[in-house]
Amino acid sequence: MYNQVTMKLNVDKFILSALKEDITSEDVSTNAVMPEGKLGEVDLICKEDGIICGLFVFARVFELLDDKTETVFFVKDGDKVKAGDLMGKVRGDIRVLLSGERTALNYLQRMSGIATYTNFIAAMLEGTGIKLLDTRKTSPNNRIFEKYAVRVGGGNNHRYNLTDGVLLKDNHIGAAGGVKEAIVMAKNYAPFVRKIEIEVENLAMVKEAVEAGADIIMLDNMTTEEMKEAIEIIDKKAEIEISGNVTKENIARLTGLSVDYVSSGALTHSAPIMDISLKNLHQI
């Protein structure tokens, strides 16, 4: 999926949109106290322990406002940081530093929060052979940032969007008329290189999915006992994914199961932000 190189090719339009959201015509507060440009510097301070992520996005916010802005980092994406750490410095026109501060921090705090939360859950699956996946439960227009943060935190990306893969959920099954019908139709339509994944909610659907030749079977919101029975029914005829309200509080119950993937929407929709600040702004 996305890494830093491909991210840099795709994020400018989203960052510009965020800046336009925050600055309709001018930054009244900044222009009031700084009518003329002056060179300044500000410190990037970590205020809680976690995994830092999104540093180049943070820097890009200021660069898009003024390409003369310089950012120096003392850490890199994926590093563990602690409260009180000086993570970098931003130097440039003080008006740019003030106007870009909130947008830059919003990205960095959000991405670092997701990376930190993901890292915590990934550690719980370490040694099990189970891959931790994200979902499409991302905030609009921020998916590219949030899915990148999952990877930095030690997780893996499920499909990026609807064009990226076949996942037949309950309403697809309803529209098609059943599990078998949905799988057959998907196989007839999708390119042969695409795997067919289907979401099932009970053991009868599991049996039908196996018989129809699904490549991946997602066990959705099943009890532990139901999942154990489903795994026996599937008997390695398909890869197995577990999903449905998976969080750091309950994922431990899944570590003993012989499955391939665990997906969690909580990685992106419930991760708290990481507290980060820009402090000590001064003229130089």
Number of strands: 12
- The CATH class label of the largest domain is Alpha Beta
Order of helices and strands: HHHEEHEEEHEHEHHEHEHEEHE
Structural class by helix and strand composition: alpha/beta
Radius of gyration: 23 Å
Corresponding CATH superfamily of the largest domain: Aldolase class I
**What is the percent of helical residues?**
40-55%
Indicate how many domains the architecture comprises.
2
Given as residue ranges, the uncertain stretches (5+ residues, pLDDT < 50) are none
Beta fraction:
15-25%
Overview of the molecule:
- It contains 11 helices and 12 strands.
- The protein is an alpha/beta fold.
- The protein folds into 2 domains: about 130 residues, Quinolinate phosphoribosyl transferase, N-terminal domain (Aldehyde Oxidoreductase, domain 3, Alpha-Beta Complex); about 150 residues, Alpha-Beta Barrel (TIM Barrel), CATH 3.20.20.70.
- Helix 4 runs antiparallel to helix 5 and helix 8 runs parallel beside helix 9.
- The radius of gyration is 23 Å and the shape is elongated.
- The mean pLDDT is about 95.
